[in-house]
Amino acid sequence: AQELFSLFRKLNREEVLTIVVATHNVRLGYSTDRIIHLNDGEIEKDERLVK
Questions:
Q1: Which residues contact 20 (CB under 8 A, 6 or more apart)?
Q2: Distance (Å, rounded) from C-alpha 21 to C-alpha 46?
Q3: Residue 7: its pLDDT value, please?
Q4: pLDDT band at 39 (very low <50, low <70, confident <90, very high)
Q5: Which residues of 17-39 are buried (b: 16+ CB within 10 A; e: fewer)?
Q6: By 3-state DSSP, what share of the chain in percent is helix, strand and coil, each rounded to 5?
Q7: Domain that holds residue 14
Q8: How many domains in the chain?
Q9: Taking the model in full, what pTM does it have?
């Protein structure tokens, strides 16, 4: 999974692509720029992470 996220980050930087990933793995989520937490299909929390 970490290799896939590395590829996503590379595509995001080099090709200026937005990547949307759904995961239950919180650690992978925190390697991104933004996390949107959902609960029963509703946005519960929207975090923009500072790097």
A1: none
A2: 14
A3: 93
A4: very high
A5: eeeeeeeeeeebbeebeeeeeee
A6: 35, 25, 40
A7: 2-48
A8: 1
A9: 0.71
